[in-house]
Amino acid sequence: MRQPRGGQIRLRSPDPRRFDARAVMPEGSLTPRIYLIGEAPGRQEAEAGRPFVGPAGTALRAMMREAGIDESQIRLANAVPFRPIQRSVKRGLRNRKPTATELRDNGPFVLADIASVRPRLIIALGKSAAWLFGASMTIDRARRKAFRFQGIPVRITYHPGFVVRFGGKGSRLWRTAVHDLRKFGRP
Question: In terms of residue numbers, what domain contains 69?
C-alpha cells in the first residue's frame, strides 16, 4: 500500500504465499447512511471480487432485513481487501484471520474509502474490523462502547460468520447481533 500525491491510496500486490491476489473492493452506496466493515474476504468473495457474498454475507443480509436496515443505504467492505490464506496439505488453501501487521498495512485502504464517502455511521463486524478503530477488547465489551473515526460514530458487533458458526439463525447470538444492528442503525 502506498499513498501517492493527492492522498489517494493504491493497493500493492500482496505476498502470494499469504494472500489471494484478487482484491475485493468496497461496494454499495457512494452516499451511505451506514458503512459495514467485515474482517477479510473468504474464498467466495475473492472469486466474485465482492464483499459478503458467501455464507456470512447471506447471514448479514438476513440480519439487516430483521433489523430493518435498507440495503440501498449501506456500503460494504473488509478491513483487509485481500483474502488471507493458509496452505494445508489436506485441504489446500484455507482462510485465516489477518494479523495485526496485515491490518495495519491494509487498513488505510478501507479507512480512506470511509473518509471519501463520509457515512453517518460505521459498524465494525468482528474483532479485526474493530481493531481498525482502536478496540482491542472483546466484542462483548466493545459493543457496549462508542468509538469515533474522523468524527463519525463507530459501533461494534459480532461478525455474521461468527454468529453462524457459534449460534446460527435464531440463536441468542443471532438475536444480539440483530438487536445491535437495529439499535445502531436507527436513522
Answer: 27-184
The sheet carrying 121-125 orders its strands as 27-28, 74-78, 34-38, 121-125, 152-157, 147-149
- Measured CA to CA in angstroms, residue 101 lies from 27, 58, 183 at distances of 24, 29, 32
CATH code, domain carrying 170: 3.40.470.10
Tens of pLDDT, residues 79-104: 988 777 677 777 777 776 888 888 88
Residues contacting residue 41 through CB under 8 Å, at least 6 positions apart: 20, 24, 51, 78, 80, 81, 82, 83
Measured CA to CA, the distance from residue 146 to residue 95 in angstroms comes to 30
- The verdict on residue 113 lying in a domain is yes
Q: Under 8 Å CB-to-CB from 154, ≥6 apart: which residues?
A: 121, 122, 123, 124, 133, 146, 147, 148
Whether the model clears a pTM of 0.85, i.e. scores above it, the answer is yes
